[in-house]
Design a protein that fits this description.
Radius of gyration: 25 Å
Number of helices: 15
Oligomer: single chain
Largest sheet: 2 strands, antiparallel
Strand order of the largest sheet: 1-2
Shape: globular
Helix content: over 70%
Order of helices and strands: HEHEHHHHHHHHHHHHH
Distance between the termini: 61 Å
């Protein structure tokens, strides 16, 4: 039997690219094409008439100028940044505490908690939204009943979805609840890779839990914390389904909408597809600038730590 022929140099060079080509083509079709189409749309005059006729005139920066001059756009932008900051801080603090708690639990209890986290993580967004809307019902919701039983009589038949602040509070609780499992499991995975000898040496030197976390745990796991934080910023900044499902058509949507919801309303409800394209493009640019600034700060801190 003849030995198998070795692949030629060209085959060895091309094979890796052929293997990843389907994934690259899929990403290009599902991500880059809609993004490019949205950017082109933002430079056109594209309303309902143009949607039917399939023709549109280019208007340059007119849509962006009109968007940036709109006070409502800046109000929604400010709300989006505030909403993102509150959610990210809450998620990172609670997830870090949960991950540290998992390190202290016994095997059986740790498995139960992990199963609960995975179950919460696997719950579909719309299903979770429906559960939260039931929990916060004004007439027979569990939250109002529990608060009244604890002595907060003012929450009897309290309408959580009647004004913007309380509705946004429910949306925040929902998003934090959905985000904690991923962040907790990621941070916990990082904690399991750390050597226990480092902690034992710190305890022998008299360091407490807070000092150990600040001087040992956080510096070592800084890349993981940076990765989780950046992913949560992206996920929350572009949140749409939770806000739209909670507020609904009859809720205080205008008081709680963020940039993705605002872009959707402008394009679908008002049929101003060109303005929606401009708002969406500006949203992506804001998110990109924010992440670049965050990563530069993180890398700068890492270089200072190495020195």
């Amino acid at each position: 039997m003849n030995p198998p022929r070795k692949p030629s140099g060209i085959v060895k060079l091309v094979t890796p690219y052929l293997l990843v080509a389907p994934a690259i083509l899929g990403i290009a079709f599902l991500l880059f094409y809609p993004m490019v189409r949205n950017v082109l749309l933002s430079f056109q005059h594209y309303r309902f008439k143009q949607l039917i006729s399939r023709s549109a005139d280019y208007v340059g920066w007119e849509n962006y100028q009109e968007t940036l001059k709109d006070p409502e756009f800046w109000e929604v932008t400010k709300r989006t940044f505030y909403f993102t900051a509150v959610n990210v801080v809450a998620i990172m603090v609670i997830s870090t505490l949960c991950a540290l708690m998992l390190m202290k639990l016994g095997k059986s209890m740790r498995i139960l908690v992990l199963i609960g986290l995975v179950a919460a993580w696997a719950t579909p967004v719309i299903a979770a939204t429906t559960i939260f809307k039931w929990l916060f019902r004004s007439d027979n919701g569990v939250v109002n009943w529990a608060l009244v039983e604890l002595g907060f009589d003012s929450f009897k038949n309290y309408a959580w979805f009647a004004d913007g602040f309380s509705t946004l509070t429910v949306v925040t609780l929902l998003i934090v609840w959905q985000s904690i499992p991923f962040a907790t499991l990621t941070i916990y995975a990082g904690l399991t890779t750390m050597s226990t000898d480092v902690y034992e040496s710190a305890r022998l030197d008299g360091a407490g839990p807070v000092r150990i976390f600040r001087s040992i745990t956080f510096p070592i796991l800084r890349p993981i914390f940076g990765l989780v934080t950046s992913l949560e910023v992206i996920w929350i900044f572009k949140s749409f389904a939770q806000i739209w499902s909670i507020a609904g058509e009859n809720g205080p949507m205008n008081e709680i909408r963020t940039l993705p919801v605002y872009a959707f309303q402008t394009g679908i409800s008002l049929k101003q597809f060109d303005m929606s394209g401009a708002i969406s493009t500006l949203t992506v640019l804001m998110l990109a600038v924010m992440l670049v600034f965050y990563f530069r700060l993180m890398f700068k801190q890492e270089r200072e730590t190495e020195k």
